[in-house]
Amino acid sequence: MKKENIEWFKRKDDITVEEVKSLGTFKDWDDKKAAELIRIIKTFTEIAYHIHSSRKNGKKIVLHIDNQMNIAA
């Protein structure tokens, strides 16, 4: 298996609208749409992390998203 450069994994700051729009797929998107994509990716990542953590610990985890309580098993 080829070892990939994973320097991006050490990143501490969120991706910016400018970085999103610098990618070919999103180059024609306006700032609002790019910002929404960032928010969606962050939300998905948080949910995936909590689900993975809860399964690793054998527990259910309660997620609070948009002031609604959801339980992920």
Explain the layout of strands and helices.
Blueprint: H1 17-21, H2 31-57, E1 61-65, E2 68-72
Key attributes of the depicted protein:
two-stranded antiparallel sheet; disordered C terminus; elongated; 73 residues; alpha+beta
Characterization of this structure:
The chain is α+β, with helices and mostly antiparallel strands and 73 residues long. The model is unreliable at 67-73 (pLDDT under 50). It has a two-stranded antiparallel sheet. It has helices at 17-21, 31-57; strands at residues 61-65, 68-72. The chain is elongated, with a radius of gyration of 16 Å. It has one domain. Helices cover 44% and strands 14% of the residues.
Task: Provide a quick synopsis of the model.
The chain is an alpha+beta fold and 73 residues long.
Radius of gyration using CA atoms only: 16 Å
- List low-pLDDT spans: 67-73
Shape, per Cα inertia axes: elongated
Number of helices, counting only DSSP H or I runs of 4 residues or more: 2
Helix/strand/pairing category: alpha+beta
